[in-house]
Amino acid sequence: MRPVIGIFGLVLAAILLVAVLSKVHPYNGGPPMADQELAKAEEDKKAAAKPPTPASPAAVADGAKAFDAVKDGAIKATLVVDGRGTVVMEFYPKAAPKTVAHFTYLIKSHFYDGTKFHRVEPGFVVQGGDPKSKDMDAAQFTAAQIGTHGSGTSVPLEAKLPHLKGSIGLARSQSEDSGDSQFYFNLNTNTPLDGKYCVFGKIISGDDVPEKIQIGDKIASFSLR
Q: Domain-by-domain residue ranges, the chain?
């Protein structure tokens, strides 16, 4: 009888363990992932920890051609970061129509004015766009879970353009179609992110500014030209 009771106890313990684990949702701060940062995926987290692998000249050239192919109808925008400088960029509705429409709507609504950059990975990405970061010190970001908030409206994944240095991507959570307000600048050519996140624009002036950005730096203004 005791062996039967023992087996029953083990089965019951296993069931309880599975139930507990099913409630666990790990929070990884890896590469750009809106909500929980652009790289929640373990592979992206590992990529962020490694020195960037230089892209081959051929890959960069092919990437440049991909941007040239969608240049028609490009929309220009200007981002001013307090104490760092001005970034002029282009968005490409031909490559990511729904993403660009959503992002430009937020810009026109002054959604980004006053928000702060909450993620800085030297040599990898710089990320901002969490509305809860306004009027908050960088020291409060972790407790307030900055990096997990957005506008409340998501767009489907439109991953067509490559992650060249200076390109702009839309952060998302683990769900592919969860991109919203958070965006990131690629500080290097991040080929491992291709096909996983939407690149919808690139910097055309002020490409040195993202390199200077620190956690807590404020967006003074973000406007369409």
A: 28-224
Three-class DSSP category at 97: helix
Q: Which of helix, strand or coil describes residue 195? A: coil
Q: How far apart are CA 137 and CA 132, in angstroms?
A: 11
Among 102, 91, 78, 89, smallest CA distance to 157 is for: 102
Q: What residues contact residue 33 under an 8 Å CB cut-off, 6+ apart?
A: 39, 40, 41, 44, 171, 172, 173, 174
DSSP code, position 52? P
For residue 103, give Cα distances in angstroms to 64, 124, 216: 22, 22, 21
As a whole number of angstroms, the distance between CA 221 and CA 112 comes to: 7
The residues pairing with 77 across neighbouring beta strands, listed in sequence order, are: 89, 224
CATH of domain 28-224: 2.40.100.10
In what side-by-side order are the strands of the sheet with 198-205? 119-121, 125-128, 183-186, 167-170, 198-205, 85-91, 75-81, 219-224
Q: Is 190 exposed, middle or buried (0-12, 13-18, 19+ CB in 10 A)?
A: buried
Tokens of 131: 């509305």
Q: What is the maximum alpha-carbon separation in the chain?
A: 80
The neighbouring-strand residues paired with 74 are none
Segment 46-85, tens digit of pLDDT:
555 555 567 788 778 888 999 999 999 999 999 999 999 9
| Residues in a beta bridge with 90 | 76, 202
Sign of the Cα pseudo-torsion (65, 66, 72, 73, in order): negative
> What is the rounded distance in angstroms from the CA atom of residue 133 to the CA atom of residue 60?
34
* pTM score: 0.79
